[in-house]
Amino acid sequence: MSNLETDPRESACGGLEDVSAEPVTELLAGRDVVLGGPRAMKVTRTLPNRDIRMVGAWCFVDHYGPEKTTMNVPPHPHTGLQTVSWLMAGEILHRDSVGSEQLIRPGQLNLMTAGRAISHSEESAAEADLHGVQLWVALPSAARGTAPAFEHHPVLPELTLPGAGVTVIMGELDGVRSPATVHTPLVGAEVRLEAGAAISVPLRPGFEYAVLALSGTVRVDETDLTPGPLLYLGGGRSALTMGAEDAGRLLLIGGEPFEERIVMWWNFVGRSHEEIARFRQEWMEGEEFGTVPGGAIPLPAPELPLTALKARGRRR
User: Fold this and answer.
1) 250: domain range?
2) How far apart are CA 286 and CA 173, in angstroms?
């Protein structure tokens, strides 16, 4: 999914400043973003957040639905990141400049590695029931210049706990590992809680974590959480308790704190304002990013901010 804002914010992320090495429970309010105009699809964006901009290498989280809506995101570019597409309801067709054409359904993973440059489009049937999340993972310097690639994983490994099912989408959790390609130590997992469930999930103390409620009301480390905000949990945890009076669903993300400082703007992840400006120019000139089949008109890039980014830490 693209960031379709016409005036996107430029964010400096990464680095170890202000990473909480101890457990915390900090609610991060999301902001509503309309993708493509007032009649288009609305998402709730919780990363990057004004207070905390990354959780491990996870640098972008959009949650949309459940609602009857239409996703129609024309060809647009990406650099320096992986896009992680996860659905709870509906179907979305992905096309990209490396020749991939793949329909994604609930419980399946579409993973696109932008590397040095890729473009793609996403679309759903008109007025379809959609519910999903789109996440980005920042690539470290050792991987961000790699060739673009796409993976589709129709079946992912499961972790079964009393009253709960856990799908390991990315990385590893409690010895269960996803087949998806990762470039930094991280985890992304969907947890489905039955009514009355109370579970404990093993964690890595060296990771930082966050949880997003996808449906229902869930209790995470004594905090009641409903869809909307992201609950930042910090690090230093060897386990996490979760429960629900009624059935609920949540997304757990985490990873080693991302040491490199990155710059995010629109659909690009780079290392400086000047590099972002170069990516934008290459996209507008029709170079480097290839062509997405289907004939849709590519999305033009917004204007860059007039002032260059000033270095900041992970927090405001």
Assistant:
1) 23-255
2) 41
